[in-house]
Amino acid sequence: MLIGGSEMYRVEDTMRRIAVNAGIKEVNVFGMPTGIFVSLDDGTNSTVTELESVKKRSINLELVDRFNELSREFADGRIDLDQLEDRLCDVDERTPTFPLWLQVLGAGALSATLMVLFLNVYDWLDLPVAGVIGAFGYWFDDWLNSHTRVRFLAEMVSAAVMGLLAVGAHALWPACNLNNILVGALMTLVPGLALTNALRDLFMGDWVSGIVRMVEAAMTAIALGGGVGMVIRFLGA
Amino acid sequence: MGIHFTSFDLVINLIFSYIATVGFALTVNIPHRVIHYSGLCGLAGWMVYWLLTLASAGRLLSNVAGAFVVGLVAVLFAKWKKCPVTLFSVPGLVPLVPGAPAYMAVRRFIDGHYMAGMQMIMRVAIITVAIALGFLLSTLFQEALNKLIKRRRARLRR
After folding, report:
1. Which residue out of A9, A64, A142 would a mutagenesis test of the B interface target, given it has the greatest number of B Cβ atoms within 10 Å?
2. Does residue B39 lie in a domain region?
3. CB-CB: which of B20, B109, B131 is closest to A113?
């Protein structure tokens, strides 16, 4: 669930519930975006504490849904602990994802439509251009992320590529509005949701995770701004 | 303070907010069975935001109300479809994200207008806080609703 981008209190709550249903008297869960601690006390003298670190984070709602389903089934007593573990591993390995082309298509649709919504102008020339550039940027970001372990590099380079493409489109068809196109196209990578999620964590009292997520969102935003800024500044558009 | 828009505006806003939300839902790998509902959630939030903006209610109120409606619809859908609220609220909030001011801020910085850029950053921060607040209000509403249901059940049992 942590990997899938769920809120922290929900993660802690689910783990606590699973443990209580498994018959453990005292449970302490402490979650952070980078790792999760669980301490279990079964009433005898021994206390078990485990730490699991989380390296990769993204938003994957299918994962959140599957885990929720499983913990629900477990709470209802439809599956036992061993089955739960099997199924959890199963979900982890074989969560169906949408094919990449569909994701890219979604990104394209997102950039084209959001451009119109945000700016409240209906210029039908910019619409397909923003869509194509947004889709390409999303694909490029995905591809680059699978090739590098440096965080934020992929975002910066993709933003630069999008800036290049937008300047190119503007040069080809001068009727295009560079700013409008970029507002739409960049929306595919903008961490607006990460920021909102971070604030929600803060309001729920999860200070550490809120601040970590906020820094992550800020860094992504800076990377995007830097990438697109360099290109526009250099080409003087 | 009247609201003026053509039916064309209305149709465009309805369709585009739906498409935008579904487009984002695709990129975050939403389960197939709820994809349309998440789209409707985004549509509801955007329409509230849009109408309030047209009624010149100000950015803060529009965003709070929009996020509140997103949260509300998400809670209802989640109860109905029996899945986490996040499935609807994460894509649903996407149209409200302050992308345009954020880009404007970058643009001002590039052009060397630092003060204007800072102003835009402030605007982004305020809108973000407003969205989070609106969403929290809907969480409050959900808790109240749960308590109400529980109390009614208890009364029925008696």
Report:
1. A64
2. yes
3. B20
Interface touch B100/A182, C-beta < 8 Å: no
How far apart, in whole angstroms, are the C-alpha atoms of residue A2 and residue A64? 8
For A47, residues 6+ apart whose C-beta sits below 8 A from its C-beta are: A39, A40, A41
- Residues in a beta bridge with A37: A30, A51
Note down the domain range covering B28.
Answer: 7-157
- B76, with CB counted inside 10 A (0-12, 13-18, 19+), is middle
Band the pLDDT of B2: cuts 50, 70, 90: low
Q: Give the model confidence (pLDDT) of B8-31 as tens digits.
A: 888 888 888 888 888 888 887 788
A158-214 pLDDT, tens per residue? 888 888 888 888 888 877 778 888 888 888 887 767 777 787 778 777 788 888 888
Query: Under 8 Å CB-to-CB from B53, ≥6 apart: which residues?
Result: B59, B62
Could you tell me if A201 lies within 8 Å of chain B, comparing CB atoms? Answer: no
Q: How far is CA B12 from the centre of its chain?
A: 18
Give the CA-trace dihedral at B49, B52, B56, B60, to 10 degrees. -50
Domain assignment present for residue B125? The answer is: yes
How many beta carbons lie within 10 A of that of residue A164, not counting itself? 17
With beta carbons less than 8 A apart as the criterion, state whether A3 and A61 touch.
no
Residue B38 lies in a domain: yes
Tally of domains in chain B = 1
Find the residue in B nearest to A98 (Cα): B29
Question: Which has the higher per-residue pLDDT, B125 or A108?
Answer: B125
Residue B2 placed within a domain: no
- From chain A, the residues in CB contact with B84 under 8 A are 6, 10, 64-65, 68
**Residues A113, B19: C-beta atoms closer than 8 Å:** yes
Element (H, E) at A184: helix A178-186
B20 and A118 within 8 Å at the Cβ level: the answer is: no
| Strand order from edge to edge, sheet including A35-41 | A26-32, A35-41, A47-53
Note whether A6 contacts B86, CB cutoff 8 Å.
yes
